[in-house]
Amino acid sequence: MPATVIVGAQWGDEGKGKIVDLLAEHSDVVCRYQGGPNAGHTIVRDGETFKLHHIPSGILYPGRICVVGAGCVIDPGQLVKEIDGLEERGIPTGDLRISGNAHLIMPWHVAIDAASERRLGKLQIGTTRRGIGPAYADKAARIGIRVQDILDPKILRQKFETALAEKNLELERLHDHPPLEAEELADRMEEYADRLRPYVDDTSLLVDRALRDGRRVLLEGAQGTLLDLDHGTYPFVTSSNPIAGAATTGVGIGPTRIDRVLGVAKAYVTRVGEGPFPTEIAGPDHARVRDIGAEFGTTTGRERRCGWLDLVALRFAVRVNGLTSLAVTKLDVLSSFAELPVCVAYRLPDGSETDEFPGHQSDFHHARPVYRTLPGWLEPLDEVAGLDELPERARSYVAFVSEALDVEVCMVGTGPDRDRVLTSRAIASVAG
Ligand code: GDP
To answer: Whose CA is nearest to atom 28 of ligand 1?
Structure first.
């Protein structure tokens, strides 16, 4: 049985949550492989809205094992809050498993994140200031605190002392922040440790066994391709690797175990934070797309920048993720536009045109979109029950995308609700 990766094909917020949620119903194990509480999935189920930050949305189905993999960073207080929130609403969390190797976001990470963004001023990256970047940085610097560390009070205190010897210098000297006290923090962490202990597991082994037993495993990335630390629009990227290849390192399985990679893209594009954005809409259409699409961050409430669909960037996503199929979400948001520009190529500073994403940052910074304008369908999609029932021009829009990218569009989103997804075949086989 297959292991499927779901990955954001743009700058995140593509509506992955809903697609993951749909596929989770047909999976046995659902894993998050990277990112932290900066990722937020909003799932609307029977009129109830669930906002999940750490926990895979598979938790909403009884009996699905939900894994937070080693590649994730966890804010323990936030995770406990999320667990409590689900339990209070009658959603059991007993099938949640947290990798003991996942790193923890500590109070110093949050303090340093906020202070560095302030210091960067105009050059700031636009982080969510939740300490995620500093936690990943400490992981690479080998002074991070892992989930398994907090389970042992002695190790915890040793690690805190080592980390704080350095971090307090940074806090005081660079950021004018009072030093943090290891003992007090360790006491606080022990409370979280007691709550999280039952969920901690060797999740690499768990997922491998599940695959060997023929169970269906879904690997869910947070953020999106263009925010990838290595392949995205650096430095305006996240501090981990959302692309599909990272699913294997983030969970601890080999690349040969992945069978299918489903990309999720909006029918247009949004971007949060700073950085170049060739198809960003100028004029009143910007606010229209933003308001109709409710483009405000799940976690931060920040307004998202909106742009027309960018096929150059999507072609890049097909390449770096090895997408085997694509879900196009939020097609309904475009229903009231008479004309729909779609970016088919970039014009570079030297006057040349390319349909491949530029390898050099300066080319991307100065790229001008070359649009092909497609006619809008100007009718609501509320009543549409199947892909072949879409208005002709909506169908042409989707077909144009699929042909340009040479990838099957197997799902189309027509509204926020869970059932507002049109599929080309049974959901269970849709990601193939
Ligand atoms: P994610 O992190 O990629 O899941 O994205 P977000 O959760 O930040 O944003 C997805 C938002 O779009 C949620 O509020 C969804 O309910 C909504 N959404 C998802 N699919 C569709 C769709 O096809 N149409 C509309 N109008 N909204 C959608």
So the answer is: 416
Residue 349: CB atoms within 10 Å: 12
Residue 1 is predicted with a pLDDT of 47
Instruction: Report residue 338 CA to chain centroid gap.
Output: 31
- Residue with the two structure tokens 């989930």: 147
Say whether 28 is catalytic.
Answer: no
Distance 18 CA to ligand 1 centre (A): 7
Tokens found for residue 83 = 């667990």
Instruction: Find, among 17, 34, 43, 40, the residue nearest to 73 by Cα.
Output: 34
Nearest CA to ligand 1 atom 12: 15
Q: Are 68 and 54 contacting, i.e. CB atoms less than 8 angstroms apart?
A: yes
Between the CA of 339 and the centroid of ligand 1 the distance, in Å, is: 23
237-266: average pLDDT = 96
Q: Is 295 in the pocket of ligand 1 (CB under 6 A)?
A: no
**Predicted TM-score (pTM) above 0.85:** yes
> What's the pLDDT tens digit per position in 83-129?
999 999 999 999 999 999 999 999 999 999 888 766 666 556 566 67
Q: For strands 325-329 and 339-347, give the pairing.
A: unpaired
d(CA 104, CA 135): 7
41 is catalytic: yes
> Which atom, in ligand 1's list, is nearest to the CA of 293?
26
Q: Catalytic one among 21, 41, 54, 149?
A: 41
Q: What letter represents residue 45's amino acid? A: R
**What's the 44 CA to ligand 1 centre distance in angstroms?**
9
pLDDT tens by residue, 205-219: 999 999 999 999 999
